[in-house]
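G., the chain you wanted modeled:
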Amino acid sequence: MKIKEAFKYGNRSEIEYILEKLLNKDKMFLHLNLDYEFDEKEFLNIINLRKKEYPLEYIFNEAWFYGEKFYIKEGVLVPRDDTEPLIDVVLKELKDYVNLKPTIAEIGVGSGIISITLAKKIKANFIATDINPIALEVTKKNMQIHKVDIKLYLTNLLDNVDEKIDIIISNPPYVEEEWEYEALKYEPKEALFTKDNGTYLLKQIVKEAIKREVKMLVCEMGYNQKNLMKQFFEENNLNDFYFYKDLSGNDRGFVIKFQN
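Predicted structure as tokens:
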């Protein structure tokens, strides 16, 4: 197959990425050598997987987040751009704690992208938990790649974590159980779906933050959950909070500050 023929098989930027990886060539080479021939077998196998919505990140075991490359594999949630504003919010809020070296706990660490990105930018003690052993395995590999230190726990929420925690961060499951997404069928369901209109774990994390007497909670949520969470905050006498938006302008998360 020639390079110019390969471009007929899908989105141009995605085909470029696939060819760069398979041929070990850069984008300039691809466009200057459209008649370059290569063995199409592996390429067509990948195209067939993509037709079935299999994530490209799992095929090449890599994902980009906040300008950095991370190791990823099947069994762990694929990072999304929608989570990047959480980093911006935390960095902005942590200006008040810059000299305190706070202890930050992430609930549901996944591939480690959030805690690792923050650990490379701020001085803090990091703790992270997950119920998925594959997630902790992937996070450990990313910690080695990015040369950061995070204390990991295989546990639910912050069970078995004894340390005093200043800040909780989380991108928990918040997709409604009855929703079916074809594009998500290869990703771990426990990292995506939950009950109570997708708010069950969000509420559990807020309760955990109250119980732990933390200073602040920063949490991602679904675009349609703002009113449900606002009502829950008010029912629990929480009044120092705000919501933030994602790159598409959708409501995507909240920040709660606690008066402890």
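Residues 130 and 154 are 5 Å apart (CA to CA).

Shout if anything looks off.
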